[in-house]
Amino acid sequence: MKKKLRTIDLTLAGMFVALMCVGANITTFVPFMVIGGVPITLQTFVAILSGAILGSRLGAITMAVYMFVGLAGAPVFAKFGGGMSSLISPTFGFILSYILTAYITGKIIEAKKSLPIYITAALIGMVINYVIGTNWMYFAYKLWAAAPDGFTYKMAWLWMVVPLPKDIVLAICAGIMANRLEHKVFARSQFRKIQRAS
Length: 198
Fold this sequence. Notes:
Blueprint: H1 7-24, E1 34-35, E2 38-39, H2 43-54, H3 56-71, H4 92-111, H5 115-143, H6 153-159, H7 164-186, H8 190-197
Antiparallel strand pairs: 1-2
Helix pairs in contact: 1-2, 1-3, 2-3, 2-4, 2-5, 2-7, 3-4, 4-5, 5-7
């Protein structure tokens, strides 16, 4: 039988949804951080953190809530986007990927909570984000969106070279941060006690 979400779960999930909203709209203040129609945001960083800190199940639920809040019309996606029209956006694959990114990151860490595992899980989560997001973007441009002149699969991946160094560094930082928070804060917290008891 699946455990119910408790007050502390909902509180932490809400905090991470809010962090995703903030991370999505960094480009509002620095609009030049948009490459090939893909905003350079902190969403991958937050998605990785959510899985690493909240765990696979709650992390994935949190990212799903973020996605559905945006689809319901709240302006929580990049550049304050939202609504059902986001489903056909070339960048929606990145939003969809955050659910699996959080889940896989959390699942890997649940097996062993060592620093190398945290960093490895974070980097794997980043790869999942890139693979799903970039492939969605490519097929979106080819099938229903207006593709730029000469657009190819290689070009789609070349666009991702620009944010890649930032996301690698942030993924490693997320792994280190989550590891330190686990051992300094969460290990003895009520949140972990509830998780272990469930």
